[in-house]
Structure formats: structure tokens, C-alpha cells
Amino acid sequence: MPSVNLRYLSLPSFSARTSVDSSSPVMDSTRAFPPLPPELVIHMFEIAACNYPQAAQAISCVSTWARKIALPHLFSTVVYRPKPAFSRGMSSGANDSPNARPLRPLTWGHLVRNLWIESSGISNPTNEGEMFRACTNVENLALMSQSLRALAPSIQVQNLARLKAAADGSTLSSDPFPCRLRSMTLITHTFRYDWHFLVGLRLQDGSELLHNITHLRILDMTISSFAPHNLLPNLTHLALPYLDLGNDFKHDTLRLPPGVLEHRALRMIVLTVAEKKWLTNPWYQISWYPRKTNISPKATFRLLVEWLRNKDDRLYVVLSPRIGDDPCKEWADAARGGPSLWEMAAQARADDSHGVDLPVSFPKGAQR
């Protein structure tokens, strides 16, 4: 199929008989290729913008009316990695006061459905709070554990704004953050006190924030094995990094945070195994697990899956992240319409395809 430069693509002009209301976009009459019905071109743009992020970016450059089509898809998933909020002079011992770097007005915030927010260095609660309050319709949130503390004041500010608007007789256009939040991903390990600020916190619609969370994934548990499942009574899906929990296959014992298997609402517990760790550390594969002498990474992985399922049918195993992928890319791909971790786990069990891409022997250079 020949490529088309979207910058030079324009819709055919409407005929004199076509009725256009005042809210319809004005369309250019210049033509870069044979005329097509406007409805067809708009439909093509919507499909392209929905399925391909790069296409959405290109379509947004076509014209004002095309930008309106692309923006909901372009900003549906946002990865936000701000720089440290304090000046370099702060760390060098200078007497300069720290200056926060303010965000530009987030006019696109209401379009965000999936938000990955990751602070580097010294985090800036002010900027994080502004981001949270701007993204009022976020449904899927990935953040570092220290950013949990910025959630409570952000919600309180939203609630006060709603109360003030109601007192003035006005209404705000969308639900306050985070009434639509259902899924969370913790980028770093977490401790119990990180969640203290959110316990019992009610939203403007009367619900409790932690009671709304149904999906939770923790990416790193190397330092702390705490999981907040006991604070999430309606949690149905939980994903934990299996190797970080200290499972060494030496004993016929499964190490999980206390109370996970006793959580009544949980329907799926996905244990993720980093492919790089699995292949480059044969220590995980030796004959300790469980009373077998097979040291093939592929065969042992399938044995692990079978052993865990015999422990509890809700236990699933997925290779994640795969070699060459980082957790952020994996999260963003799923948010943009790719298979989610939960779907991959269910599909692997249905197809019995666990470890199908793993080699039968360790790669050269693996530690022994």
C-alpha cells in the first residue's frame, strides 16, 4: 500500500446542498488525492489514531478539525517522568532556596485514561498533585510508592473545589479525581505507612478510594515484601514479582505476603518472573525445585507453573518483563490496546503455552 503524507491530506469541500451546523469543523477544499466522503475520512482517521500512537500524532498535525479527532487517542495514555524539582545548587550546598518547576496548564488532562507518573531524584509533590488533579478521568494509574502521599491532598483539594462550586450554584464538567480509578501499578516497593494517608479517604461520590481498586500490580519487592491487599477489600486481580519474594525452590513452600491466599475477593493472582533473571541465574533452576533434577529453564518453568496451580487454582505465572522490554513499555503497550498481564496469564493457561519461547538450555555466560 503506498504511503500517504498526512500533513498534506485534506477533506473535500462540502457541496452547496450539504448542511453544516455551527459546531461542525470547517474543512479545507484543497485536495491531495481523489475526493472521499468526509464521513469516511473521519472514520479512517479515528481508526488510525485509535490503533497507532504515531498515526495519532501525525493526524493531529493535519489541521484543527483533525486534531480534535486525534487528541482523545493521543493523550489517552501518558507516561510522565519529570525532572527533579530542586535546583542543582541545593545538592551542592548553596544557599539558593528550592524552586519548583511549574507545570504548564494541563488542558489535555481530562483526556487521560492511563497515567504512568515516575519521579526521578527528589520528587515534587506540588507537580504530582497538579498532574493528579488535572487527570480527572484516569482509570489506570502507575506510580512510585512515595507518590501515594500526594494522592490524599489532591483528592481533598478536588473535594473542596466541588463543595465550593456547589455552594456557588455552579457545577464542574467531569468527575473529580480519582472517582474512575480502578487499576494501580506500583513501580517501586512499598511499606504499610505509605498507605496510611489513604485509609478511609472518601471521594466526592461517597465511595472510599481503596475500596474502588480492583487490580493491583507491584513491580518491585526486593526490599519490602509488603502488599496492601488487606486494605483493598474489592481487589480481584493481584500481580507480584515471584523471584523478589525469596522463593528458592529449596523447600516445598510458597512464599507470598501473609493473607494473599485468604483474600476472598481475589480471583487471579499472577506471579511474574523476569525472563532475564530466569535465564541468567541458573541458581533458580537447580535440582532443589521440587525434588527434580531437571535444569532446563523451559522445562523447569513449566514445572513451576504446574506446582503453583496445584497449590491454588488462582495462581498464574507469566514471564514479565521479557528480555528487551522494560515494565513501562509493557504497561504502555497494554494501556494502548495490547494484551494486559491478566489476559496473557489466562491465555497462556488456556493454550498451555507457558515458557514456549524459553530455550531448553542456559545461554552461554550464565552464572553457575
* Large-scale geometry: globular
Please summarize the sheet with the most strands.
8 strands, parallel
Number of domains: 2
Intertermini distance:
51 Å
Return the structural class: alpha/beta
Overall mean confidence score, pLDDT: 78
Beta-strand residue fraction: 5-15%
What percentage of residues falls in helices of 4 or more residues? 25-40%
How many distinct beta strands? 8
Oligomer: single chain
H and E string: HHHEHEHEHEHEEEHHEHH
What is the gyration radius calculated from CA atoms?
A: 25 Å
Strand order of the largest sheet: 1-2-3-4-5-6-7-8
Q: Would you identify the regions where 5 or more consecutive residues have pLDDT less than 50? A: 1-31, 85-103, 287-291
Question: Number of DSSP helices?
Answer: 11
Structural description of this entry:
With 368 residues, the chain is α/β, with parallel strands linked by helices. It folds into two domains: 39 residues, no CATH class; 275 residues. The protein is 30% helix and 10% strand. It is built from eleven helices and eight strands. It has an eight-stranded parallel β-sheet. Helix 1 packs across helix 2 and helix 1 packs parallel to helix 3. The longest helix has 20 residues. The termini are far apart. The N terminus is likely disordered.
How is this structure best summarized?
The protein is built from 11 helices and 8 strands.
Descriptive terms for the model:
8 strands, alpha/beta, 10% strand, 368 residues, 2 domains, 8-stranded parallel β-sheet, disordered N terminus
